[in-house]
Amino acid sequence: MPNCVRVRLFHGREPKLYEMRFKGEAPAVGTKVVTRTPRGLELGEVRAAPRETNKAFGEVVRVADAGDLDRVHRLREQEESLKWWLKARLRAKLPQVKVLGCNYTLDGGHVVVYYSAENRVNLGGVVREIARHAGARVEFVAKGPRDQTAFLGTLGMCGLESCCSTWMQQFAPATIRMARDQQLPLSPEKISGPCGRLLCCLAYEHPHYKELLADMPKKNAKVCTSAGVCGKVIKLNPLAGTVDLYTEGGGVITAPKEDLRPRDKEG
After folding, report:
1. What are the residue boundaries of the PSP1 C-terminal domain, all occurrences included (predicted)?
2. Sheet with 110-116: strands ordered across
3. The whole model's pTM is what?
4. Rg (CA), the chain
5. pLDDT band of 123, cuts 50, 70, 90
6. Cys staple from 202: which of 99, 117, 144, 178, with CB 3.0 to 4.6 Å?
7. Does domain 68-143 bear CATH number 1.10.3370.10?
């Protein structure tokens, strides 16, 4: 029997969904709910239909009412004010720390400060000062380059908002080999996302490219066309189903893969 719904908590722009237990009738998709998590009470939005699981992160306490939404709005203003105060304070004491954002629990008793730093830093010396200013217990959470992009939200080279800040639940492992298979230039500017890491979409498209490349000649293979033109494969065009050949006559031609056969079988 379904016992959990998947809820998006408002931690920056991160799209991660958390399993939340519920009692009675399941809240509908799109419903704002108050949840109880290890941090305390947090506002979230139901994003998927109920399902059965034994790995709940927290529980749905109630459907959010107008009072809850108004409180969250006021807390967002406090978070923004605290973020800029922190930026100013840490710029003097810990200039290597970049403050990304803050997030209060619904009761205002716990605040999470998200930050990034190139090297490990000791924040123990500023916790008490921040707690006094924030009027809440303070928790610091470090974010790596990819996590920063998911938290803040950016535009990808496709012109759309980055996948990691809209729908991705975990980062896809991408490799240089995937870029090679997709015939992309191995320039960091061309194959890296806003986070500076390899584009996650390389991993999404790679299975399709592998299928297309399966029956194509390898790069540098010597082949001949049905018209008897022979040469070396210098480029594969898997989406078009063609290859570029550097011919024995010194020219470059494009030929469909179906029109090619290995040179050593030329009779």
Report:
1. 58-143
2. 98-104, 110-116, 137-142
3. 0.76
4. 27
5. confident
6. 178
7. no
